[in-house]
Amino acid sequence: MNLLQIRKRSTSFALPFRHREVGRHVLITNTEGNFLLLEPAEFQLFVEGDVVRDTDLWKRLKERNFIRGEENRDSMVERVRARKTFLSYGANLHIIVVTLRCNETCVYCHASRANMDAVHTDMTKETAERTVDKILETTNPNVTLEFQGGEPLVNFPVVQHIIEYALEANKKVGK
Predict the structure, then answer these.
(1) How far apart are CA 130 and CA 125, in angstroms?
(2) Do 168 and 107 belong to one domain?
């Protein structure tokens, strides 16, 4: 069923929802993350606002906060809060460029490539440690380190040092 086919009176019955066909059923979802799989006839009743109170369909829709005026606002707020908690976290992914040197010339590469003899582009172990310390200051309870470059393994001793240092430093913060 196309949303344009939904009668205006259904807007006073149903809370905002999305829908799509899944096989021979219609999946409806709402902004708090609840979903129901409805038979086409049930979906028709729902969008037209003709669901009879106290039927099984009514109870399922009410329980998952699809019916306007029957919603459990505390439940809605808690579910949205739980689903969006990550928004108050800091960065999770931290990209560490340990060198610009690379022995390849890949056409798809985005990196600022330096020749293999350009060792001045390599990160030092001291800089690596300060980088890890700064990463572990993030407010995010989880962190992911990703090595990029050039070719990170060209500066493998620093990559190895970062991993060992990060594992040891993380024992204090537990990320």
Answers:
(1) 9
(2) yes
What is the number of domains present in the chain? 2
The first and second tokens of residue 101, run together, are: 């040197």
Q: For residue 126, which amino acid is it?
A: E
Nearest CA among 114, 84, 83 for reference residue 99: 114
Q: Shortest CA distance to 135 belongs to which of 144, 124, 125, 123?
A: 144
User: DSSP 3-state assignment of 71?
Assistant: coil
Residues contacting 164, CB < 8 A, separation 6+: none
Q: Looking at the chain, list the stretches that DSSP marks H as alpha helix, in order from N- to C-terminal side.
A: 40-48, 56-63, 73-84, 125-135, 156-173
pTM attached to this predicted model: 0.59
Same domain, 79 and 16: yes
- pLDDT tens by residue, 79-102: 988 888 888 888 999 999 999 999
Structural domain boundaries enclosing 100: 89-173
Average pLDDT for residues 34-42, to the nearest whole number?
96
